[in-house]
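A reminder from the course coordinator: this example appears on the midterm review sheet, so study it carefully.

Given structure:
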């Protein structure tokens, strides 16, 4: 990186974006420790105003009409380099700095000046059939967006080799532009005696989207409780009470699982960390990937991981997880049963989680990020 150049981070997300918000925080934190005086944050959501104090920030106003105008420009003009000046005059960027980072896989990145590094989180619009990702409109839009990013970005970041390979298979792009930066989550620190009371429970922190597969998980719990007579099974489902929440709540009541399934609603990151600390296991029957955030969170606290055997799960978790077919609730139940009953296996998986947490640490993450920027 040139001595007089700056790193600009364009942030168009907020906490409701879940993993993308955490991903953005990681990038800003890593860069702020090494290049604090060379960073500019351009943000659209006010939540970023009070975050990362001491870093230069500039708010960008992007209303519906302005976004639509940019979309039509991108749609109609083939050589987008010729209109990079628009990002300065219409968005409010005052300088043409050398490096731009886009953590939210933004389509707007294609009309920005300078060198552009864009994160692409997943291609689930091509590999699943859930409305939240793969409706006809979303499929068309995402394909359009990724084709533009593939053509107009200088570097593209993925969270796994699997995700990188998927992109190569579906979009015309130079392989030399693609880099892998595995996800990382900071461990929260708290007093060891300041944790939830010692009890035996499972944990699944996930929004109530269909692709999170809560129903198959609950079918597995029902089998264990009502058929295998494991009445002490307990699982915490942590998320805001929206999306598919009512359907899930009704299923729990209908199957008589009220004592076995605790719907916590939204909880803070600190409370979630405490839940991880004492959990028997994270159970994650998701249909999405390539990788996921909760396993990395679980590793931080030595929590055993049970996860869907799909996409890049094995690349992310290695031998620090037990795998199952998310389509088969009986397979999910089988893995829960053995981690619930086998103390030796539980102890072994806790050790493996602790060991895996050393791979996903801040120093490793930062080194890889800096290498991508400087390469």
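Designed residues:
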């Amino acid at each position: 990186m040139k001595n007089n150049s700056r790193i600009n981070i364009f942030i168009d997300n907020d906490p409701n974006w879940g993993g993308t918000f955490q991903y953005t925080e990681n990038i800003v934190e890593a860069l702020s420790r090494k290049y604090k005086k060379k960073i500019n944050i351009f943000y659209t959501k006010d939540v970023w105003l009070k975050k990362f104090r001491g870093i230069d920030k500039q708010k960008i106003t992007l209303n519906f009409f302005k976004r639509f105008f940019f979309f039509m420009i991108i749609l109609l003009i083939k050589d987008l380099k010729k209109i990079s000046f628009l990002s300065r005059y219409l968005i409010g960027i005052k300088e043409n700095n050398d490096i731009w980072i886009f953590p939210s896989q933004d389509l707007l990145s294609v009309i920005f000046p300078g060198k552009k590094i864009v994160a692409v989180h997943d291609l689930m619009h091509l590999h699943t059939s859930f409305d939240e990702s793969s409706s006809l409109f979303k499929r068309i839009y995402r394909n359009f967006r990724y084709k533009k990013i593939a053509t107009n970005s200088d570097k593209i970041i993925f969270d796994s080799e699997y995700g990188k390979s998927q992109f190569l298979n579906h979009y015309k792009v130079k392989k030399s532009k693609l880099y892998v930066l595995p996800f990382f989550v900071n461990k929260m620190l708290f007093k060891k005696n300041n944790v939830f009371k010692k009890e035996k429970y499972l944990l699944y922190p996930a929004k109530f989207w269909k692709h999170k597969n809560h129903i198959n998980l609950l079918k597995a719990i029902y089998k264990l409780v009502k058929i295998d007579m494991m009445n002490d099974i307990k699982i915490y489902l942590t998320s805001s009470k929206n999306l598919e929440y009512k359907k899930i709540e009704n299923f729990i009541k209908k199957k008589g699982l009220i004592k076995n399934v605790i719907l916590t609603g939204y909880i803070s990151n600190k409370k979630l960390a405490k839940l991880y600390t004492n959990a028997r296991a994270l159970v994650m029957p998701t249909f999405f990937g390539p990788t996921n955030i909760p396993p990395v969170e679980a590793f931080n606290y030595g929590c055993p991981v049970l996860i869907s055997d799909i996409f890049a799960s094995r690349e992310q978790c290695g031998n620090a997880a037990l795998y199952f077919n998310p389509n088969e609730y009986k397979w999910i139940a089988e893995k829960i049963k053995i981690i619930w009953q086998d103390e030796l296996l539980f102890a072994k998986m806790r050790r493996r989680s602790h060991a895996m947490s050393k791979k996903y640490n801040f120093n490793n993450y930062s080194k890889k990020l800096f290498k991508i920027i400087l390469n």
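The CA atoms of residues 186 and 362 lie 7 Å apart. DSSP finds 15 helices and 13 strands in the chain.
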